[in-house]
């Protein structure tokens, strides 16, 4: 995860677009120097988040600028993706198309839920049609199900498996399983249930560390943010040592 600093207009914006870009590129270089398998860029510091219907043009513009610069330093064989909080799935597709990125992380793909930002409605039909309209069908859409930082009481009668099957039926390219919050480990039983009942690739979207990575080897991929930061805290800078240690553990497992 490359957690971009707060964008213009967000309460935590620091006053310099160039600093946002430079920091994102520096973190990308740390990851590349440690041979990570992919890069995912996110406007994590735009707290408090707003729903995509309230975005100004600057959100898409700044993300495009950041991803353009990151694209210049990432080798072609390293896949890159985008998530724009909150629920900026069409915006993310547009940026990915403009920057030749490979995938997006989508919130609210199937079934509504209540997030910190309010009601998030399902948009699979809208974003898949948008992807078709802009000739971006080579861009994969990986979708959160029963996502973290959210209440799912309005869909409490719909199981995780049923949600995953709905995502598959609605043409998701892969499902993302998380814990309840940022840095919180995903439930291993839920991973096992998904492996046995879903035909989609499964990505673990939170809580993977050096200590527990062996527990999640049945997943196809991991999205790692907090564990790679100094002291394991999402607001801190990426730590070269923590990334290196994790990749060394992963290399040992792979061999």
TrEMBL record:
By its UniProt entry, which InterPro entries does this protein fall under? Answer: BtpA, RibuloseP-bd_barrel
Give the source's domain of life in one word. Eukaryota
* SUPFAM superfamilies from the UniProt entry: Ribulose-phoshate binding barrel (SSF51366)
Q: Which family does it belong to?
A: Belongs to the BtpA family.
What name has this protein been given in UniProt? Answer: BtpA family membrane complex biogenesis protein
Species annotation: Ignelater luminosus
């Amino acid at each position: 995860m490359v957690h971009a600093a707060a964008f213009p207009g967000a309460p935590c914006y620091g006053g310099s677009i160039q600093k946002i870009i430079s920091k994102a590129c520096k973190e990308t270089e740390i990851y590349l120097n440690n041979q990570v398998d992919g890069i995912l860029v996110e406007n994590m510091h735009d707290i408090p988040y707003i729903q995509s219907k309230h975005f100004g043009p600057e959100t898409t513009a700044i993300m495009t600028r950041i991803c353009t610069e990151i694209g210049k330093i990432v080798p072609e064989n390293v896949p890159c993706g985008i998530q724009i909080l909150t629920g900026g799935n069409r915006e993310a597709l547009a940026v990915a198309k403009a920057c030749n990125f490979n995938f997006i992380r989508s919130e609210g793909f199937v079934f509504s839920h209540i997030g910190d930002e309010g009601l998030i409605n399902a948009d699979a039909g809208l974003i898949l049609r948008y992807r078709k309209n802009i000739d971006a069908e080579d861009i994969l859409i990986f979708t959160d199900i029963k996502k973290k930082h959210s209440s799912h009481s309005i869909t409490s009668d719909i199981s995780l498996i049923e949600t995953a099957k709905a995502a598959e039926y609605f043409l998701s390219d892969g499902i993302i399983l998380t814990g309840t919050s940022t840095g919180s480990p995903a439930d291993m039983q839920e991973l096992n249930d998904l492996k046995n009942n879903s035909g989609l690739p499964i990505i673990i979207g939170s809580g993977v560390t050096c200590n527990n990575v062996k527990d999640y080897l049945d997943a196809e991929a991991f999205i790692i943010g907090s564990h790679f930061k100094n002291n394991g805290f999402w607001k801190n800078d990426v730590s070269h040592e923590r990334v290196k240690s994790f990749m060394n553990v992963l290399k040992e497992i792979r061999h």
